[in-house]
Design brief:
The chain has 6 helices and 6 strands. The chain has helices at residues 26-35, 77-97, 102-117, 120-125, 127-142, 148-157, and strands spanning 3-4, 11-12, 39-43, 48-52, 55-57, 64-66. Strands 1-2 form a two-stranded antiparallel ribbon. Strands 3-4 form a two-stranded antiparallel ribbon. Strands 5-6 form a two-stranded antiparallel sheet. The radius of gyration is 23 Å and the shape is elongated.
Amino acid sequence: MSENCFICLEKTSNKVCKQCNCYAHTSCWGRYMKENGVCELVEEEDCLMLLTKNFIPCPLCRDENYCVPATTRSKTETYRFHTNFLFAHNYYMKFKNLDLSKNLRFKYLDMSFKYFKNLKQFILENEAMTECIKIILSDTYHIDRWNNANYYHMEFFGEQIEKII
């Protein structure tokens, strides 16, 4: 059975209320929930949270419907970006500030960048993440004298780290 979406008025088979005949496309329903304060993305000190109310009144009969917004790849892109960006930054800061031997520090940096290589496409698609990785590699190459930084810079960006004159 297909009815009209209460928002865009196009045909849909996605019923959003069990009590009445309220239908909505998933994207329209998500937009309705966002506009009515049902879900909100909140950035805390070192994490990102999606807050949702447990119930939302049906726009037609006002009956309370259990609601959890549909999670799709495109809707989680911001979350994934922030999570990976924070991970990269925090991981670097953690090992930068620890009093470790040079060999142990380099071992942890290698482990970190092996992880980051799995995120290469994601890193290259995000300007802020790209700049963060470039700064980390440049700092560890010039300040810590970590030669593998140049290798990882080539892996990510296809060029060597610029020499400081």
